[in-house]
Structure formats: structure tokens, C-alpha cells
Amino acid sequence: MVTVPSAYTAALCAGAAVWLCVAGGPGARRRRLLFAASAGLNAGAAPHRRWVARSASPLRRWLARPVSRFRPEWLCLAAGAGLALLGDSPLPLLAGAAGIPLVGRRLRARARAGERDRRADAVIDLCATIAAELRAGSQPAQALCFAARATGALGDDEPAVVAAARFGGDVPEALRGAAAVEGAEGLAGLGACWQVAVDGGAGLAAGLDRLEAALRERREERERLRAQLSGAWATVVLLALLPVAGLAMGAALGAGPLRVLLHTPAGLACLVVGGALEAAGLWWAGRIVRAGAEP
């Protein structure tokens, strides 16, 4: 049985560990300066001491970059540890550990969506910049190289596209290859405009203007759809937090919901069934909202 002082001590130690992992600022700077100074002192030491210093340098570098080690999904483990201490049961800790990959997957998907939107905006800026440079009197290849450096819309494919533009390569094919990246689909339209301008003699600036207008209209439509679905997502989040609110109310009334759920057969059965229903409901509601978000 975990006593109250020991529980408070464990929670304090866990909080201190989290703070050391995520804290930056002057403390982190002092640690880096300390490690640098110790490395300088070890430079003139004996050979075996220098070997020890070199073998410890990865650990020092790991300790000197605490912020880069932190991942938001690790908070699931911290929350599970807190509930395990409060409920005197390892089940919340196991549930928190199991939730780390699920939350990490969701956060990575969200980051990919943000990167996709930023790349789509960069493609729009690329088309606008090329059109402006062409009207200013630049050659198509020169305008493409300048716009690629200014906007960064081509990403890792920028050297291939720039080389094709400078040395007479197949620019449309290079742009279609760059369009395979998620969010950069507009580059395929840029390649088509480039090919029509080269083969048929059509104005490239006029085609890029129409392409930019189409891409902007698509982005605005996507933003309007997200604004309309924000209420549905808020409802899903509210339904997900209702069980947590019920547990908090029960604890405030002195009913001991964690003790009932974690230490009685009926409570364990309710916990399993309720958790399964909660997960199924969230999955189904999220599926409905995501289906509505598809263009």
C-alpha cells in the first residue's frame, strides 16, 4: 500500500525529472558551458583520461540538448504514473504506456498535415513569383531558379529542377517528379504550363496566373470546409472529456471512483467495457468528420 507521503515524494521526483528533461534557458546554458569547460580541461590530460572524456561525450551531448529529447506523447506516461499513484494500481501506468504510440501517431499525422499545407502555400507563392519575374523581363529559367530559392517550394527536388532549367534539361518532367511529394501537387500544373509555353509558344505568365488562381481557390475551399467542421470536432472532443469530468466530480464528492474502478471486479468490468465503448465512439465520430472533410 502506497502511503500519502511516499506518493507525494514519488510525484515530486517525477515532476523534477520531467522538468530536467524539458527545461532550457540559463540552466541548460550553464550545463553546456560546464561540459565545454570540462572538455577543455581534459584536452591536456593523460591518454586514458582523454579516452574516458571521448567515450562520455555522447552522454554529454545528450544531456546538453534536453528540449530535443522531449516528445509530447510522453505526457501520457506521466499522466498514467500520476493516476497509478492516486489509485494505487499499475493499470493506469500500463494504459499510459500503451497510449504513447497512438498519441504519437496522431501527432505525427497532424504534423504531416501542417507540412502539407505549408508546402501547398509555397507552391502558390512559387507560381506568383515566377509570373512576376517574367513580367519584369526575366527569362523563364532565370525566373524559375530565383523563385525556387525565394520560396523553397521545391524542397529536396530543388537541385534537380534548377539544374534542368539552367542546362536545358526536361523541366516539366522534373516538376512532375517534384509534384509527387504530398502537398506539392500544384507543381504538376506548373510543369504543364511550362511544357505548353515551350512547345506551343503560349504565354507562361498568363498560364501561371490562372494556375495560381485555381490553387488559391482550392486552398480557400479547404479552409472554409475546416471552419465548418470545427464545431463537429469540438463536439467530439467534448464527448471524449465527459468520462474524465465524471471521474473528477466523483472524486470531489468523496466517492473514490478510482478505487472502485481499479480494485473491484464490477469496477474493472465497467472500466473495460466503458473504455472499449469510448474508443469505438471516438473512432466512429472521427471517421464521420474526416469523411466530411474530404474534397
TrEMBL record:
Instruction: List the keywords (alphabetical).
Output: Cell membrane, Membrane, Transmembrane, Transmembrane helix
- Record's subcellular location: Cell membrane
Q: Which residues cross the membrane?
A: 6-25, 232-254, 266-285
Residue ranges of the Type II secretion system protein GspF domain?
127-249
Q: How does it sit in the membrane?
A: Multi-pass membrane protein
Q: Listed GO cellular component terms?
A: plasma membrane
Q: What is its main location?
A: membrane
Keyword Coiled coil in record: no
Q: Cross-referenced PANTHER family, in alphabetical order?
A: CONSERVED TRANSMEMBRANE PROTEIN-RELATED, INTEGRAL MEMBRANE PROTEIN-RELATED
Indicate what this protein is called per its UniProt record: Bacterial type II secretion system protein F domain protein
